[in-house]
Amino acid sequence: ITDNNFDLLSINTPAMEILGIETTDVKHQKITVLTDDTKIHMVLKNALGGEKNNIMFESHERAYQIFYSPIYEEGHISGAVLLLFDVTERTNTEKIRREFTANVSHELKTPMTTIGGFIDGMLDGTIPKDKHEEYLSRVSDEVGRLSRLVTSMLNLSKIEAGQLDLSISDVDLSDIILNTFLYLEQKIRNG
Q1: Separation of alpha carbons 167 and 158, rounded Å
Q2: Were both Cys, which of 79, 117, 165, 171 would link to 71 (CB 3.0–4.6 Å)?
Q3: Cβ–Cβ < 8 Å for 149, 107
């Protein structure tokens, strides 16, 4: 909280840490002297100009959100109040969600494109009838892949919501690697 001359009236310890204020005797000192953070100076100026809003900013590899508002006394602005929140975890979580959504979209689109292409090819005669069984087998593989992907996504949602207990067990990595290699080898040969 500041008065309309930028003099600090009240600040809590977390806000002092965010702003890098090291001295404890801060009451009635100019906020512009206590911190050189230009975002704080701008927000305070805006609040003292009558603006009520919030902004996001980054400092020292952390993300913060500042809510600011003027303080009115007898119809005139007598100061400003700023609320600072460390939103780093929320920001990182949102970034991970966006990346996850983009990856899932790609992973869903690839088998859907393959399935659609094979079915269209069989329907329009591009794929000869004697090859239909081979291509239907590939379609079946892609449907299985889609099903596993959707199941994995649903399980991730359940894990995040605390609704699924994980069963940790040993895994034969050589079997997974071999199956992946065989799957990719067939795709490479088929172009």
Answers
A1: 14
A2: 79
A3: yes
